[in-house]
Amino acid sequence: MEQALLRILRTLGSTAHLTQAHARLLAAGLAASPRLLPALVAAAFSAHSPRYAAAALRAAGPAASTVSHNTLVERLAGARPRGRRPAPAPAPADALAAYAAMRAQGVPPNGFTFTFLLRACALLGLPRPCGCVHGQIVRCGFGSDVFVQNALMDVYHRCGGGGGGGVGAARQVFDEMVDRDVVSWNSIVGVYMSSGDATGAMGFFEAMPERNVVSWNTVVAGFARMGDMVTARAVFDRMPSRNAVSWNLMISGYAMSGDVEAARSVFDRMDQKDVVSWTAMVSAYAKIGDLDTVNELFDHMPVKNLVSWNAMITGYNHNSRYDEALRTFQLMMLEGRFRPDEATLVSVVSACAQLGSVEYCNWISSFIGKSNIHLTVALGNALIDMFAKCGDVGRAESIFYKMETRCIITWTTMISGFAFNGLCRDALLVYNNMCREGVQLDDTVFIAALAACAHGGLLQEGWSIFNEMVERYNIQPRMEHYGCMVDLLGRAELIEYVSKKITELEPFNSSYQVLVSNCSALEGRWDGVIDARTSMRNWGIEKVPGSSSIQVGSEVHEFLAKDTRHKRRKEIYETVDGLMALMRHTEQAHWDLFVARYWGYSMLDRATTVNMGKGDLPIVLQLYQEDHRSFDHQAAVRGLKLISPSNSCQRWEQGQPLDKLVVTTHKSHHHPGVYRNQRSPHKALIRSILAYWDTRNTWNHFHLVHSETVSYSATQSQAKNGRFFHCPALSPLLPKAGAGGMKLGDCCLEGPRIRWWLNYPGVHSEI
DNA sequence: ATAGGGTTAG
Predict the structure, then answer these.
(1) Nearest nucleotide from residue A191 CA, by C1' atom
(2) Helices A681-696/A377-389 angle, 10° precision
(3) pLDDT of amino acid A275
(4) How far is CA A565 from CA A89, A429, A434, A560, in A?
(5) What is the Cα–Cα distance from A68 to A36, expressed in whole angstroms?
(6) Does residue A669 carry a pLDDT above 80?
(7) Residue nearest to nucleotide B10 (CA to C1')
(8) CA A599 – C1' B8 distance (Å)?
(9) pLDDT for A30
(10) From the alpha carbon of A314, which nucleotide's C1' atom is closest?
(11) Could you tell me which residue, A27 or A555, shows the higher pLDDT?
(12) On chain B, which bases lie within 7 A of the protein's CB atoms?
């Protein structure tokens, strides 16, 4: 009977089966069976019912074994997932509560209980719970259990406590230990190494009664982390024996210090290369932008795992090849061997954000919703950024409020998200809430807040935030903060001016001159602005490379500024120029509020451009196909065919409305602070326009969106890594012609494990 | 059959 029930509990499929098995267990009088109850707890937990598990334990009362309680504590603390089923997210606070319940029942803990609890403390990352658990350990008589003490050392080190970033507390535990084994010594060496105290660490290393390969690895890892590869190498050479980890430490150490050649030579000399070695090399080459080698390595890897795929995806992201990043993700999904984890999705979400395609964003967020992935802080941050960049601030906001824990990046992203979309007042509301919640602020969040003021022309608010930053939060303003203030001063006047003038503006021609003269009439203010920008450039503050993207139907083509690699670039640029010229000569331009707002934002940069004697007017156009009489349809078709010889183009040629055509080109420009590592706010604005049209579902129109702003050229390396993409991420997944039930604009993704349909606009259904 | 603590790749 007991055997049979045990077998059933191990192979449970659903919550319903769980209840049935539990009922039989109760009927057989085995409710507190030391063999069955732990299995029941584990099964309940795997069925995503931690509460059921806790209830079963409570019902069993004091008869429940320590082991059965430990099972729950262990799972709540985030045990390694067993089997192929995804485990529920860890709930460290609940683990502590489960311990309290256990004690309340009078069930005695053992050493295992405390190692699990300490893992929960590590997840919480706070010194206080560590102290509480430490107290329990001592009181329950486990103060000399070497496993528990080792875990305690580690957790104090991670969570801080006792001063010196946890070194003090860890040291104290070490000193008070009655018995120490090699792990204890390794731990204390590791603690000193990662606190940067190599001398202290080496003192312990020399004093160790015995060393194993991990002891040596800990030292090598320490020096490698500090960037001291010379010493790391010396230690490595002295090692009596090495394992794969030792070699991998050298590879990743050299890669981190930027010496890919050295990493390569270690890799080549290694005869026990494993996935870690290969993956480390993949990311090393991705880091220096050598994507050919990256691909070659990836193709030759004997074994790939999820981390290898993730390294590829983030490698592409790192080189601004977002399309390739998505394609890699799709390939991984098609292969179906690995479930994406949080790291995968963070990368994929940021690729989607950069591509700015509303379809991809919908697709990936729907995917995340359905795949039961825990919304961690990093993933939440990425999602907020993605939705904000796609112009869907509403969804960005709802993610923000859904998040259980937020970090300073969350707040910063939300503030910039509102500001990107022109909702500067909302950005400041978030800022105020943040201040009220007593979050530890850093200087970056002030850049976001000040940029929000600058965009909204909120002069007073900007000043008060600036002063608050300096006086109340004691943050030294950096170049970026001053940059925002310069923007703010310039823009506040300008927006007022532009909003008066905007109705008088004629498109394209004379207005250009009008604006130029008016800009320079702003009493020398511009000189200050331009000076500041020039000096920022001289300071070496990086700017984002300009990029353009062309989206036809569901395909996104992207190329970067100063791109020289594509063979047909000349034709392509000519085509785009031609399309722009067509737009310029079309009289039936429809301007709306967005245009006005866009004008307001781009003025500053315009002035700089003028000063540099470069560029053209920023243009945001929506041309309604039905309307344009003087539009050269044939020329546009020719151009489009060159860019994308797709179905939709032929249909358009035959006089049918185009499903969707969006051309955005922009050259990026320097924006202080927040925009340093992100795209220019202009792109965000364009996206908000796109989102606006998306909500109206009026894609039967022909939209051309063009903005050309400041044109500092991209650096050589940026240009080198840039490339024209003509491999749409979804194309291998698009349905074959004639596949039943698919309409134009639908995308299909099929794999052994998943089968999704993306049915534009934003309606997802699973088959 | 709770399978605990120290080192490596995103």
Answers:
(1) B6
(2) 80
(3) 93
(4) 45, 45, 46, 10
(5) 9
(6) no
(7) A311
(8) 52
(9) 85
(10) B10
(11) A27
(12) 1-10
